[in-house]
Write a structure and sequence with these properties.
168 residues, mainly alpha, two-stranded antiparallel ribbon, 4 strands, 40% helix, elongated
Amino acid sequence: MQRSMRPKRRWQRVMHGFSIIELVVTVAIIGILTSVALPLAELTIRRAKESELRQALRQIRTAIDDYKRAADEGRVERKADETGYPPSLDVLVAGAENPKDPARKKTYFMRRLPRDPFAEERDVPAGQTWGLRSYQSSAESPQPGRDVYDVYSRAAGLGLNGVPYREW
């Protein structure tokens, strides 16, 4: 009898079976772990976007308040019929001339305007991703106007805290 024709030993056949079973169990465990990890990853991404939204709103609102304060102090030129709030979000980045400065240097309120992290349009400028509220409009029905009194996210949906993004 030749060596290659010999029947396989019993332990070789058993070990072969165990390796297939181990492979199936391993794939099943990886599938279970993946099904648990995906929702956690989505939740982490949403939390990060909400944190970014909170920070962006704080930065823009602080810049709007700084502009208003500068207008009230006369460091930003304003007409008698204007509220003192910026006419657009772009002014916060572009700057406004200081009439009290002999060189008429500009005062800047932001380095750059952040995008709304929930805005789906990626090809529009950052200033157009925000909803604008003028001084004359109400908080319940914000409308753009001659100035920018406040900004809000135009994203639909609720935050993890249960408050709609529009109301943040």
